[in-house]
Design brief:
By secondary structure, the chain is α+β, with helices and mostly antiparallel strands. Helix 18 runs antiparallel to helix 19.
């Protein structure tokens, strides 16, 4: 009942003494093994998509064939032709859109023959896995036998509590790596030995430098290589792919790519200014993106202090160790853990003696911001430089040697896993996180947050941003230079502002998740709504720091200096003036996207059935007051005018006044009520100035038109 796939067939062209020669051009010089081109999706919003064209078999060729003792790599250059392209693609990525070349490497790896014992995945700890469903197990509602990915480690001396492994995991630093970074990279790799000691192994991970005259290259699977790249527009800051035996879960080899741009002060512009979250692709690690933003913000902050050059050097050192820790973590099997940032309170987060020992967070597999203090005298670590408490525990589960006997082994692993309810071992990965509006439900599983009180941490972050904003023109207007540094610093601060308010917003409508098993000691409720007090506190912070007339403290006339340095014809087809209103509205919209998301509004009602006390109607009423109340009798500044218009549009959409609404009926009713409340707030107005009156007339017109549209439909 399971359909198999036949990707290609080939003729046997010769046979001798048990050896078979096969014609393989139709396998490799086609898309049989890997689909490259994609069809056009009907109804796609892109009316003029880029089309690669058809595969040109006469131009497609083998680019390279490399044979190693345990693997063969075969690279193929696929050529696609489109003689009449209507979309010419990217100038940076294509030489000529009529001919698109794509190179793919196919790796054939020899499977090992050893006594490796697979280990099954458990939902309380995060390993990459190969999914297997056993369809013959009776009375099992979850017949999953998913194999975690891990290296084959055996003790040299099984009698010792801690022994060196028979085969350690050896990493080679590629000889192209800058010398000034090699010590930090080595430190980041070797730091994992701390975690492996919890599993009973000493000196598990080793680091060597590839000699300049090495006779081998990184394509040889026997060598795990930390490779260095420098790209104009890199898709990653660090990337840690590994190769796994799909029948057992054993990791056979791995490489790590490190990208130079993330350790410079060079802004990656499409990343810095884009309104979307850092990453929507769970198959792509974005730790480098967060570290890049953290380093940019850290450097901006350190420019205002003494010993700034020394501190910047330490910031870069810690960030590189942190990135290497993260990517090595992937190559030893661990997936992301975005819940681990709740390890310390807002005092201990700056206690170096503590964090240098156990980490800033429970896991280096989190995406965390740079840790900066309002009080420079009490500045802690910028980034974690050791595996955290969760990491130690996860390695113990994954790598501690098995014992003989199925029952004994199950009891041993159950004892380890029973500690998952410990607050130091919190776990939630990409499937759980709330980085995107409407995604996830547990606000503790969030990218870019810090401490076990992230709302308070975000408040302090924004206070720091406001302090820095005041001194920007003084610190960044440098004689003999353009104003490019000043512009960068301005947008770096606002990017950090956006990240902070996004963290706060996720507590509204949130539900804490606990995946402990039935009867497990210390377990919380599987689903527990965020307390009324916490949700109200989050709304209060958003009202004051995001929606208030005084939310954005931009120094007067700063806009006169936000000039990007010109390069060639950079501004062709667009204008170069700073779009400050658009930037601020984008930050406000990022929070609104969550607060009034269809999933969040539904959850506010659903979760009332199991403990939520912050109702849908109260939340929308609080939000309406936050957007309109404070200046209902005074002049409305232009930032608030944009915000109020945006909010009215969203209420009209939720209520379904102009087209069919995707929201539930409870949300539609509450939105309609709030629209009528807005009408009252803007109708009881004084006449402060012409601009405010024009704005309020506009809002009144929008609401009445929408209401009238509904009446006419009826």
């Amino acid at each position: 009942n399971a359909s198999t796939a036949i990707l290609a067939s080939s003729f046997v062209v010769a046979e001798k003494e048990g050896n078979v020669l096969i014609e393989i051009d139709n396998v490799f010089l086609s898309e049989a093994l890997h689909q490259i081109s994609r069809g056009f999706v009907p109804g796609s919003p892109n009316k003029n998509p880029f089309k690669m064209g058809k595969l040109a078999k006469d131009r497609t060729k083998y680019a390279a064939i490399k044979n190693y003792p345990e693997n063969t790599d075969l690279a193929v250059q696929y050529v696609y032709t489109n003689p009449l392209p209507t979309n010419r693609g990217s100038d940076r990525g294509l030489t000529d859109p009529r001919s698109v070349n794509v190179t793919i490497q196919h790796s054939f790896i020899q499977m090992p023959e050893n006594n490796y014992t697979p280990r099954f995945e458990d939902v309380r700890v995060g390993y990459f896995s190969t999914q297997i469903t056993n369809m013959t197990i009776p009375d099992d509602v979850t017949p999953y036998r998913d194999l975690i990915h891990r290296w084959h480690l055996e003790k040299k001396d099984p009698q010792q509590e801690r022994s060196e492994p028979v085969e350690p995991i050896v990493w080679w630093i590629e000889n192209t790596t800058p010398h000034e970074f090699r010590d930090a990279i080595k430190e980041g790799v070797l730091a994992w030995n701390k975690a492996f000691e919890e599993a009973g192994f000493r000196n598990t991970v080793q680091v060597k430098i590839q000699p300049d005259d090495a006779a081998w290259d990184a394509g040889d699977i026997r060598y795990n290589v930390l490779r260095w790249t420098s790209s104009p527009n890199p898709p990653f800051g660090g990337y840690g792919p590994s190769f796994v035996n799909p029948r057992t879960g054993q990791i056979l080899g791995a490489d790590i790519m490190l990208e130079y741009v993330y350790f410079t002060n060079r802004v990656k512009y499409d990343f810095l200014y884009k309104p979307e979250p850092f990453d929507e692709d769970v198959n792509k690690c974005s730790a480098g993106e967060f570290i890049h933003q953290g380093n940019l913000f850290g450097m901006t902050t350190l420019n205002f202090g003494s010993n700034k050059n020394l501190l910047k050097k330490e910031l870069i050192r810690q960030s590189l160790i942190r990135l290497v820790l993260h990517e090595v973590g992937h190559t030893i099997g661990l997936n992301h853990n975005f819940k681990s940032s709740h390890l310390h309170n807002n005092v201990d987060i700056h206690n170096k003696e503590l964090t240098e020992r156990v980490g800033l967070t429970g896991s280096v597999m989190d995406y965390t911001p740079v840790n900066l203090s309002l009080d420079t005298e009490k500045q802690g670590q910028y980034y974690s430089t050791v595996p955290g408490t969760y990491d130690d525990w996860a390695i113990e589960f994954g790598y501690s040697p098995s014992v003989k006997g199925l029952v004994k082994e199950k009891n041993r692993l159950d004892k380890i896993l029973s500690r998952s309810s410990n607050p130091e071992l919190l776990f939630g990965n990409d499937a759980d996180d709330m980085r995107s509006p409407g995604k996830g439900i547990d606000p503790r599983v969030m990218t870019g947050d810090m401490s076990n009180n992230p709302i308070e941490y975000s408040e302090r972050r924004i206070a720091l941003i406001n302090i820095l904003m005041e001194g920007l023109s003084r610190k960044y207007a440098i004689d003999g230079e353009s104003y490019h540094r000043l512009r960068d610093a301005f947008y770096i601060l606002f990017r950090e502002y956006k990240n902070s308010v996004a963290t706060v917003s996720r507590f509204v409508g949130g539900v804490y998740v606990d995946r402990s098993f039935v009867g497990q000691e210390g377990a919380a409720l599987p689903y527990e709504p965020v307390s009324y007090e916490t949700q109200k506190y989050a709304m209060y912070v958003l009202e004051n720091l995001l929606f208030s007339p005084n939310s954005f403290q931009i120094p007067e006339a700063l806009g006169n200096y936000l000039q990007q340095q010109r390069r060639g014809f950079d501004f062709f087809g667009k204008t170069e003036d700073p779009k400050i209103h658009e930037t601020i509205l984008g930050i406000q919209k990022s929070a609104l996207n969550h607060l009034v998301h269809v999933n969040v509004l539904k959850r506010l009602s659903d979760s009332q059935l199991y403990g939520n006390e912050y109702t849908l109607n109260e939340m929308l009423n609080d939000l309406t007051n936050a957007v309109f109340q404070e200046d209902s009798k005074t002049a409305v500044n232009t930032f608030r005018q944009n915000l109020q218009a945006e909010y009215v549009n969203r209420l009209i959409t939720i209520a379904g006044l102009q087209k069919e609404s995707s929201y539930d009926y409870l949300s539609q009713a509450s939105a309609l009520k709030n629209l009528k409340d807005v009408l009252k707030l803007i109708s009881k107005r004084s006449r402060p100035n012409t601009a405010t009156n024009i704005h309020r007339d506009f809002l009144e017109h929008k609401i009445l038109t929408a209401l009238d549209h509904t009446q006419k439909k009826r």
